[in-house]
């Protein structure tokens, strides 16, 4: 097996085909479109919070991109739905830190769960943006959704 | 085919002694991910022979001084080298010395024309600049296949002047012909801009036919020659184009320098969009008179050692003989098309076998994104370009978002092409995509 198995972990290839959360979310509290201009990959991600405005009730996305970007959106959906927004922020920060590690250190499995499969991506500097695409969209959604919740 | 890590000796090519050429390029001797590097990305940027690196270094060690400024012996030496470089490039493309303007790159060269035309429309330049003045009702024509560098400057020019931007339609394979051009070029056309050789499809434009048609309607023609000048004998005067642009780094030369070609009387009439030192004759507090071409466009400090390096790249190509370079690339283009066409389920963009194309092939691997294709090839030591290759509208027209492009040059071997196609055949199985 080539070195590629470090990048294309089974879990990533599996997520790129299963695509958990694939499909536009109805009546989102916030949605955000994110584009990677170097390759044209894009994603539109929407979230809905619960009545208290502190928990992610539902998440959906539509996207077109490489296996890394699509698998990342799928893994993100599994991790985030049903958790509270403070934890989602921790996840985003932890995921970003892992992808900026350039392969160094051990990822925080307690926090990131299955998403540690993306640790190998951090060694491929040109692919980090692919893995971050949906997470950047999620971060923007969260800010918008919470701002909206506090206005009400 | 097996991918052992021993590089077999390049087979003799009809046109070139590739084994000897490769010895001039230290870059090519390295490994990539444990395999001998197969550099198939020369369409994006070419590597440089030792002769070019040495020429630039020798200039900097012995002859560097502020060109066209002052009167010292040193300035004389550097200015002579700088202007000799211009003469060398001019000879290479069938131009006069005053018809070669240094730019930062080909994109910048196109912008010099587009911005100068916008200045003309804004009232700058005398009556001689009338030919550049656009207004509502005038039309700028480009093809649907253009690189963004030959599209966005014209979008901006149209927005500034009220002119309309129109598009030569391309076929489903991304190619186009003179009939397609004739369906758009007409009496309102003021400028036609298109690529000589497409950086995505390798399609070779019918340049002289388009020039004849455009000139019949009184329109100017600008040729994006980035993928032709490095690869085939190119004579702008014989082609009849009014302007052309190309980049040094795609023809074995340095980064940071490109070339704008223009017919002398047009360059002398085009308002200089960037102004400043060295472009003028007389300056008062209120206004300035500009020198003729090329100095009127070369404001500020120029890329002097880069010009010297580019001239050395030209001499290197001349020693190889551009006709032989062309024959070598025709051979590799045929091999690329032939080998790619044999892989089941792979879509080759552009025309198929039997039609001459530039020595490049962009492919779509259904079910696998181009980034993933490129990553797989990279793990096998094969360097290609992935993405939209700065041609989003063309990819959209082809129903694609991104493709994987292999492009060849003087140092490319048939063995490297076969390594590319052999690895390409393994991509879908690796990603678990079935036909």
UniProtKB/TrEMBL annotation, chain A:
UniProt organism field: Agromyces allii
Family matches, as InterPro entries: NIF_FeS_clus_asmbl_NifU_N
Gene3D superfamilies: 3.90.1010.10
Name under which the protein is recorded: SUF system NifU family Fe-S cluster assembly protein
Domain annotation NIF system FeS cluster assembly NifU N-terminal: ranges: 8-130
Record-linked CDD domains: IscU_like
TrEMBL record, chain B:
Pfam families (UniProt xref): Aminotran_5 (PF00266)
Protein origin, superkingdom: Bacteria
E.C. no: 2.8.1.7
Claim: Acetylation is one of the keywords in the record: no
Aminotransferase class V domain segment(s): 39-420
Cofactor: pyridoxal 5'-phosphate
Primary enzyme class: transferase
Keyword Membrane: no
Function: Catalyzes the removal of elemental sulfur and selenium atoms from L-cysteine, L-cystine, L-selenocysteine, and L-selenocystine to produce L-alanine.
NCBIfam families: sufS (TIGR01979)
Family: Belongs to the class-V pyridoxal-phosphate-dependent aminotransferase family. Csd subfamily.
Name of the protein: Cysteine desulfurase
Taxonomic source organism: Agromyces allii
Taxonomic lineage: Bacteria, Bacillati, Actinomycetota, Actinomycetes, Micrococcales
